[in-house]
Amino acid sequence: MSSRGRVTTRPSLTTRQHELVSAAGFVVPAVAIMGVFIIYPAIATLVLSFLDSDGNFVGLQNFIQVLSHEHTLNLSRFLSGESPPWGSLIHNGLWVIVHLPITLILGLVLATLLHNIKGGPTIKAIIFIGMVVPMVVGGVLIRFIFDAGSGIVPNFLSALGVEGLVTRTWTAFPQTSLAALILGSILLWTGFSLTMHSSGLSTIPKDFYESAEVDGAGVFTKFTKITVPMLAPVTSVVIAMTLLWEIKIFDIVYAATEGGPGGSSMVLSFQMYRYAFRQLNHNLAATVATILSAFTLLVGMWLLRRNREV
Amino acid sequence: MSTTIQALKKKVTPLRATQYVVAYAFAVLWLIPFVGILVASVSPFREVVRGWWTVNLANASLDNFIGAWSHATMPIGQGMVNSFIVTVPATIIPLILGSMAAYGFLRYRFPLRKSLFVIIILLLAIPQHMVAVPLFRIMQSLGMINTFQGLIVAHTAWGMPWVILFMRGYFSTLPIEIEEAARIEGAGSARIFFGVIVPMSWPGLASVFALQFSWVWNDFFLALITLYHPDMLVATQRIPLLRGQFHVDWGVLTAAAVITTLVPLLVFVLLQKYYVRGFIGFASK
User: Fold this and answer.
1) Domains of chain B
2) CATH 1.10.3720.10 is right for the domain spanning A63-309
3) Do B257 and A141 count as a contact with CB atoms less than 8 A apart?
4) A259 phi and psi, to 5 degrees?
5) What is the pLDDT of residues B99-118, one digit of tens each?
6) Can you give the pTM of this predicted structure?
């Protein structure tokens, strides 16, 4: 831009060219690989979602078909109080409604509890193991916890004298499979919220709390008036990352229930996989993928804007 | 004397005691499932099905580990070898190419720089499912389905946006004076990057290494759409296949889970500081 106003001398031009060649050397390999194996495929998926299997443009027909299918949305079943399947969209939605607040608040409270305690770092590391294990192993773990024979939850409940569904293998019945997955995923993900909030806590100056104590503030007041507001930027990051995780959830569903029984724990990402690689309907698969991405991009954009404001 | 008593009094308030009790209760609650998996993996199947808390640890053995390692149809040992073959290059290549690109985006001005960078940030938010079908088709036309190279390339591409973003942030904290001094001395851009920048960046590179290694090792979906031949499957792909047909063979399944988890767990334990830093940086960018 600045070169427009003045006479560009020859050496500076070659310097600029030289700089461009260097820049290309650094940037082009990475951009080329991303272009071929991510950016192009993502655009191609978007295009596929507007085509039929012969490649004709069909407008929003695929979206209407997916969203009106009971695999995706079974509102009447959900509203009438029957057991799942309620459709993957509702299942993902429930995942968010249950999993997000619990992991968020639990992580924040645990971060505060473990902040100045003997053995705190060790306990944090233990809770973080859920983030370290492969998600497929997480799925196995969930099956294991809720197994009627060898699982701790059904046996614990029947030892308490509870009867009925919850003392059987949770992942094997439509009434309980989704609940098992969501509860189990809390075990795996809370470590994220805990670690993020812990690192945020260490940046709050101690004298904030000390001067609050002088003013007679109790534990609860200090938590709600200092800790929570000071951690708000961290919390918004945790909310965004947790939402992305819940929307994209796949591995643990695959390993624990394969979306079953009878679609009772089906989620969007698994529905997409089934369409694409089991029924070989690439257009409907692309449509589900596009819907998924619309949700995740919304979250990503919210995080970007929020970070800019902070 | 009085000060010690005061200190003691200050420490053992009911509130403080409650804090300890609740904190340790949560630790135990979180440990139970993982201990269960460990106990099941060393116990005979007939005992595990009655609940892992009832097993007689005197009967503990490594039989399940041996069974899982050299399983008749889905040996997890072969899966571990395959996982290493994929994970090592799929960590190193994006580490190098991504860092280079990060430096390029930070230090150079070139056309489309800003828009490219926005696209890279947006790529962080899309799910792997968004690229799955066309990626599969591209791989197929390049003859890369059922090859480790195919999965390595997929992971390289998929890890790149995060590596670029993280390392760009890291490089921006380095003092520019050293680079300028090297430039004045006549060092070329490649020499400045590999000779000056990289040696100053080990902590950042260690974070990228720890996380990219763990993510590639733990990945399931990209492997699922790339590798189909039974001999080629990576460790995570084998776990769902070890479930057993008529009953869940918990001994073998949990042993396979433990074996597969050992690698990322070791990375976490050895590189914990860098691992967590990478996590925090990755999320707050």
Assistant:
1) 2-61 (no CATH), 71-284 (1.10.3720.10)
2) yes
3) yes
4) 85, 0
5) 999 999 999 998 899 999 88
6) 0.92
